[in-house]
Design goal:
The protein has 6 helices and 6 strands. By secondary structure, the chain is α/β, with parallel strands linked by helices. The longest helix has 30 residues. Bound molecules: zinc ion. Zinc ion (ZN) binds next to loops. The site of zinc ion (ZN) has 4 residues, from loops.
């Protein structure tokens, strides 16, 4: 995952979070071409230390770091002390996010969920925690959550497959694990499954 790391100047000190329980998604409520730098200027104009989000996902899908990941953000009233704030540029009351933005968001959310031991239920829209329409009714929320659940399942299957593969290597039943590692996310043909069972059975005998 590539993250652009601007050299932000903070107008006042940032505090560290003691917990991370939610990932909260926003829109910038502005033109899709909005940059993280403009958001930083707006937030400084509010009298804040600087950009309030931890990440901004620009129109082309570029992920830009805002506040340091461990800092308390400024994006969701009463939720800043235990959440990561992600902002997609655009106004999703009148348009939908670019596919590249959704792809980057999925990568970033999966990273955060796994790093902080969260579940998909902890991934929220700003409107789920505060009285706002953010990130807009045209943000494809149901689809996005369904995509997360689906890919989460694939990761779970891959993990199980990788563990099984390691065990088979240890037992000397697989000679070329590298070849299999690349195909762990693919559907296994029945013949391969039964060939493996047969080999295991023979080994045991
Ligand atoms: Zn918001």
């Amino acid at each position: 995952m590539y993250i652009k790391e601007p050299d932000w100047r903070w107008n006042s000190g940032l505090k560290n979070r003691s917990a991370t329980r939610e990932v909260i998604i926003h829109h910038s409520d502005s033109a899709p071409e909005t940059t993280a730098e403009s958001i930083d200027a707006w937030h400084k104009a509010n009298g804040w230390a600087g950009i309030g989000y931890h990440f901004v996902i620009q129109k082309d899908g570029l992920i830009v770091r805002g506040r340091p990941e461990q800092s308390v953000g400024a994006h969701s009233l009463d939720h800043n002390s235990a959440s990561i704030g992600i902002c997609l540029t655009g106004d999703f009351t009148i348009s939908t996010p670019a596919p590249a933005q959704i792809n980057s968001l999925e990568t970033l959310v999966k990273y955060a969920v796994s790093k902080y031991g969260l579940g998909i239920k902890d991934v929220k829209r700003h409107r789920d925690v505060n009285a706002t329409s953010c990130p807009g009714a045209s943000f494809p929320w149901a689809e996005f959550k369904a995509g997360l659940e689906e890919s989460g399942m694939q990761d779970w299957e891959k993990k199980l497959g990788a563990e099984a593969l390691d065990a088979l290597v240890v037992k000397g039943l697989v000679e070329n694990p590298g070849q299999w590692k690349e195909t762990l996310g693919e559907v296994t043909p029945q013949w391969l499954f039964w060939t493996m069972i047969k080999r295991l059975t023979e080994k045991k005998g």
